[in-house]
Each structure stands twice: as structure tokens, then as C-alpha cells.
Amino acid sequence: MNAQSSSFPAPPPYALASPVFRFRALASLASRSPLGGPREVTLATYLVARLVDDCLPEKALPSTARAERAAGARAWLASVALPAAVRGALSRLAAATGGDPSTIGGALTSVMSAVDAYLDAPSRSELARLERAFTK
After folding, report:
1. Domain ranges across the chain
2. Given this model, what pLDDT does residue 6 score?
């Protein structure tokens, strides 16, 4: 078998790029978690992680959009059955995404401590990678 026959053909010029799914491990863990506490914590963590990801400099959502999304996330977090420590940490992180991005690193560290018992290793790794982006 030569090198050309083992490679994939080039996509047609009108083909769409493959989408990148952010936080695949968190979403996968949420789908496998039992209903109730573990799933609620994982879904809430996923939601706030996406807010944090959108604060990265290369994404740079406008501050008004980030503030609106943070307010919506905090309202949703208030309606979900979460342990008090987890709810507090996630709410503080959601609020940080709507304000000064320099406060995100510390708030994300608190979330990682609060949700550690609920996450698996790949999910923790995704959050740690995100934390490194804000604590450089």
C-alpha cells in the first residue's frame, strides 16, 4: 500500500470544516452520570466552563454580551439543585465572566476544588487546561 492510498481524500472545496466540540469530556461525563446531584453538578460546570472559554482573548466576546450571559447563567444556577459550596463557586465564576477577565483564574481554581469529587480525570484535565490559560 503506498502513502497516497492510505490517506484520506481532500474534501471538496464547498465542504464545511469539522466543528470542534468544546469540553467533550465534561459533556460525556454528564451523559453518563446518574440523574440528580452528579449530573446537575457536571452540567452546571459545563455551562460555566463554556462561559469562561468565551472570555479567552482569541474569542473576545464584547463585555455587554458576556455580562448578559453571566446574568443568565447565574439565574439558571439558582434554579438547579446543587450543593451550596458548588453553587457558590460556580456563581462567582459565572459573575467573573461578565466582568474583569483577570478575576477568572482565581474563581476557576475555587470551582475546580468544589467540583473535584464529581468529575473524572478527563473532565478535570479540561478544566485544568482552561485554568492555565487564565493564570499565565
Report:
1. 23-134
2. 56
d(CA 111, CA 134): 14
CA distance 95 to 97: 5
Other C-beta atoms lying within 10 Å of the C-beta of residue 30: 19
When pLDDT is averaged across residues 24-31 and rounded to a whole number, the result is 94
Residue 99 gets which letter from DSSP?
Answer: S
Choose among 99, 91, 101: nearest CA to 133: 101
Q: Kindly report the average pLDDT of the chain as a whole number.
A: 89
Identify residue 39 by its one-letter amino acid code.
R
For the whole model, what pTM was predicted?
A: 0.84
Q: How many helices (H) and strands (E) does the chain have?
A: 7, 0
